[in-house]
Write a structure and sequence with these properties.
The complex is a heterodimer of chains A (249) and B (269).
Chain A (H helix, E strand, L loop, with lengths): L3 H55 L1 H13 L4 H13 L5 H9 L21 H4 L2 H5 L3 H9 L2 H15 L2 H13 L3 H14 L4 H13 L3 H15 L2 H15 L1
Helix pairs in contact in A: 2-7, 4-9, 8-9, 9-10, 9-11, 10-11, 11-12, 11-13, 12-13
Chain B lengths: L6 H6 L13 H15 L4 E6 L5 H12 L5 E4 L6 H13 L9 H10 L7 E4 L7 H12 L4 E7 L10 H4 L4 E5 L4 H14 L3 H5 L3 H11 L3 H21 L11 H11 L5
Parallel strand pairs in B: 1-4, 1-5, 2-3, 3-4
Helix pairs in contact in B: 4-5, 8-10, 10-11, 11-12
Classes of the chains: A mainly alpha (249), B alpha/beta (269).
Chain lengths: 249, 269
Amino acid sequence: MLDVASLERQWLKYKIKQLLPYLFALLGSIALIVTFISFSDTNTSSSPPLKERVPTTLKKEPETTFKDETMDLEPSMQFIQSITPNVSENPPTTSIPVVVEKKTPPPHDPIASPTPVVKVPQPLKIPLSTPTAIHSNDTTTRTSIKRDSNTFDIHEIEDRFRNNSNPHLGLYIAHYHYDNGNYNEAYNYALKTNAINNTLEESWLIFAKSLVKLGKADQAKKTLQLYISQSNSEEAKNLLNTLNKEGGK
Amino acid sequence: MDHSLFSKPRDIFLDIVNPRDYVQIDSVSQMYQNLKTSVQKPLKMILLYGKPGTGKSMLLHKLHHDLSKHQKVFMIDIPIIDEGDFLRVLAQKIYSYVNREAITLTNFLELASAVNFTQAPIVLLDEAQLYSTALMEKIRLISDARALKFVITLHKTDDEDIIAKEHFQTRIWESIELKNASADELKVYIQKKLLKANCFDVANMFNDKNIRLISKLTKGNYREANKLMFSLFTLYTWYEENHPSKIKYNALNTKYIEMAALHTGLLHA
């Protein structure tokens, strides 16, 4: 007689034994697929960094330049540089010099602070620091801005002003020197700017304020009066009134 | 009295060579007809060979069963190894010569020439590979003398191809090789056996999948198939008695076939 219970146990053992290779094959296949997928994932995920790493290494210098530039671009020398041709071609506007003036907040100046000149152009400050404007410049220029001080920048602008006699550059330089306490230089550049273009209100105001700082308040008042008679400028009137009041005190 | 549905099928697969259980299968039937035709020819020796379990003995028994109605046929299914005994038994069975002493070949040939048959008597020797070379040589001499016609069966093994032996190679005039059954032949074999015994319900339980598995397990060997079927129906008998709910009557359970194979040694756990 058959021992059916024993046979059933044997059969179970046999089935397990029979299915084991398939199970191993299945597990092996799954392991292979998983390994393959993870390997391919690793490749795909690791390759971009490698690609990126090389350019990063290569562009190490420019990248740093860019960073520094964003910090050093406060004076927006490059921007001015980049827009210089347009400025010379287009009719003169007060926006650019004013913007530059806003870039570097002027030192405490009792004369300049009450004037509306400082407040008006403030919104234009943003475009000057936008990346598009920065990117439009060449790498060499950016590098120089990054490394050098404002002094260098102003010298560069002065050189450019000497070359192209752009009244807006002259106005900027005058502003710069006035903000930095170089009233003689401010006076000279404002004078030159007025000689090139006598319709720039800002230039006349800087010129007058520089005279005041140099102790020539009377000459400043006369200059303002002359300018007011020609342009009827409200800003000039305000400044003249202020000077008169301070002179009265 | 056993009333199990599977007890009768179990018994018909008992590994007993009985010519009444002979199942007509196309290829085997063709071989059998060839064998019968060959026997009628003036041939001296006919060889049936094949691997164990291919149906040689069954065919020989069938031949003996059929020929004995018309002519003198003697079958030695259990080899007689001793030469003297072999000749003495032949003389007694063929020529009704009773002698307690061993007979020499010369005496046997004298006896054969003294007795006249219209048709040469046929001697069927099963498992001839067990006979010694010397005895086979004597059989050849008897055959050459046309005293007797021999039909012998041999195992064809992979290790030793007995047919290649000289005394068979030069003497045998006709040889028939029996091969293992194909899946279709095995299906016919099993179902015919069951139908012959009126086991219709059980015969219908065999589907192609079952047959393929059985054929794979037995490699088409009739003896192994018989053993497997016997174990299978023994299992079914047990389940029918103890767990009848586990039996599905529309098809054989693969599990039970495999269990039967484990029991018969066709599978190993």
